[in-house]
């Protein structure tokens, strides 16, 4: 196994910066959902770290559930037509739902997901994403909580993968060119 540090080109956000940002997001969520019984919906697998840290930074009692989705099509780009690989266990009728995501890239997955969950009778469906690429977003999907807007370059770590690797990095970073070749 090669040294992971050699694969990193540039660290965008350190563990400390991520911790502080998650705390900020949690304060906003706590404030907006005071007195409500919020259901956190994590989107597997990228959202695992955000969910783990955000849910523990929240002060009130929150429940969580998970979905796994996949875009139709052969390409690597999101098509906007989404297939559910693992559905929620929770009935959404009347629920206040907060979708937890690592990144909004094209926004196509989230736009579909937000509409899908809303149609199940949820009272509200909002989105919390740690990262967003404004120059890549192709929809008008509204994220109520965003950690950072970043340039449209490929990033890994803190749940984000390249070919299922680097999810366990505690920072968010770009990869050295040799990784792709
Ligand atoms: C990534 C990321 C978001 C989605 C964003 O997930 O975690 O869920 O893509 O893309 P979009 O805004 O263009 O729709 P991916 O499909 O790589 O699955 P993963 O979370 O299991 O890595
Ligand atoms: Mn994902
Ligand atoms: Mg991925």
From TrEMBL:
It comes from the Bacteria. Pfam families: Pribosyltran. Pathway: Purine metabolism; GMP biosynthesis via salvage pathway; GMP from guanine: step 1/1; Purine metabolism; IMP biosynthesis via salvage pathway; IMP from hypoxanthine: step 1/1. The keyword Nucleotide-binding applies. GO terms for cellular component: cytosol. Its main location: cytoplasm. Its EC number is 2.4.2.8. GO terms for biological process: GMP salvage; guanine salvage; hypoxanthine metabolic process; IMP salvage; purine ribonucleoside salvage. Keywords: Cytoplasm, Glycosyltransferase, Magnesium, Metal-binding, Nucleotide-binding, Purine salvage, Transferase. Its cofactor is Mg(2+). It catalyses: IMP + diphosphate = hypoxanthine + 5-phospho-alpha-D-ribose 1-diphosphate; GMP + diphosphate = guanine + 5-phospho-alpha-D-ribose 1-diphosphate. The keyword Mitochondrion does not apply. It is found in: Cytoplasm. This is Hypoxanthine phosphoribosyltransferase. Residues 17-162 form the Phosphoribosyltransferase domain.
């Amino acid at each position: 196994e090669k040294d992971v540090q050699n694969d990193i080109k540039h660290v965008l956000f350190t563990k400390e910066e991520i911790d502080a940002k998650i705390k900020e997001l949690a304060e906003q969520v706590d404030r907006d959902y005071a007195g409500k019984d919020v259901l956190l919906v994590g989107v597997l697998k990228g959202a695992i770290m955000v969910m783990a840290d955000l849910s523990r930074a929240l002060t009130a009692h929150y429940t969580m559930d998970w979905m796994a989705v996949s875009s139709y099509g052969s390409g690597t780009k999101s098509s906007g037509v989404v297939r559910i690989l693992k559905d929620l266990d929770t009935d959404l009728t009347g629920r206040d739902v907060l979708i937890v995501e690592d990144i909004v890239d094209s926004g196509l997955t989230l736009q579909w997901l937000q509409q899908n969950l809303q149609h199940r009778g949820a009272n509200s469906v909002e989105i919390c994403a740690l990262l967003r690429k404004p120059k890549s977003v192709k929809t008008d999907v509204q994220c109520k909580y965003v950690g950072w807007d970043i340039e449209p370059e490929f990033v890994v770590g803190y749940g984000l993968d390249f070919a299922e690797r680097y999810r366990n990095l505690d920072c968010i970073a770009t990869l050295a060119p040799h990784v792709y070749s």
